[in-house]
Amino acid sequence: MARYKLIIAYDGTNYNGFARQPNGTTIVETLEEAVEKIVQHKVYILGAGRTDTGVHAKGQCCIFDSDTKVPVERLAKAINSKLPMDIAVQSVEKVSGDFHPRFGAKRKTYRYQIMNSKQRDPFSYKYALAYPYEVDLEKMKAAAEKMVGTHDFKCFCAAKTDVKDTVRTIYDIQIYQQDDLISVDICGNGFLYNMVRIIIGTLLKVNEGKLLVQDITRIIESKDRNLAGPTAPPQGLTMLKIIYE
């Protein structure tokens, strides 16, 4: 058996997230069905991270093991021929048998998009949060800077989680605007459940003056989820890329 690494992109609008669920269509099950039609045997696909219902990806990393005779350079095209239009394999390569997409990841980058317009945009509602209020980017950037570093991010983790170690490192948060579209790129060594979306909700509370920039350090130190902002809606979030060393 050889191990294959796939980079996939998908629009998560019509799926119940990436991971297997007892009810509803998921990304991984749809991908497995397509791969199995090509390699002609059952496969188990493992991803670098779970994305929730409605969350998208441009650089999700997955693996599967196979003894297929299909040349690796033809696999991406072959698998894509069996996939719906909202999921696409970007690349396929053989990797060592001990490669693990989750444990081997050194850096992950997520992007959250905000459509800052007073008018509803029918072309962005699947991929950005509609936010028709005034935005102070400098205030949001100052608050984001307080989050950079290694911290116990329990305050930015969904309450219903069984993760025991909530210490993570955020390497960088970039916030920029092009026309009406605001993008927040967050790079870290890993993320807790709903962490990025709670960070966005907290930054928006700072923008609205309901939290102060100097409150961020206190919130992180408190480890209290109730002190942070709300969980931002899923459609603005995209798993952008994963770095392996």
How many domains?
2
Strand content: 25-35%
What's the level 1 CATH class of the largest domain?
Alpha Beta
Report the end-to-end length measured between terminal Cα atoms: 24 Å
From the 3D coordinates, which CATH architecture of the largest domain would you assign? 2-Layer Sandwich
Report the average pLDDT across residues: 96
Shape: globular
Name the helicity range. Answer: 10-25%
Radius of gyration, CA atoms, in whole angstroms: 19 Å
Query: Could you name the CATH topology of the largest domain?
Result: Alpha-Beta Plaits
Task: List unreliable stretches of 5+ residues.
Answer: none
What composes the largest sheet?
10 strands, mixed
Write the layout of secondary structure elements.
Layout: E1 2-10, H1 27-39, E2 46-47, E3 56-66, H2 72-80, E4 87-95, E5 105-115, E6 129-130, H3 137-145, E7 149-152, E8 167-178, E9 181-188, H4 195-207, H5 215-222, E10 237-244
Parallel strand pairs: 3-10, 5-6
Antiparallel strand pairs: 1-3, 1-4, 2-3, 5-9, 5-10, 7-8, 8-9
Helix pairs in contact: 1-2, 3-4
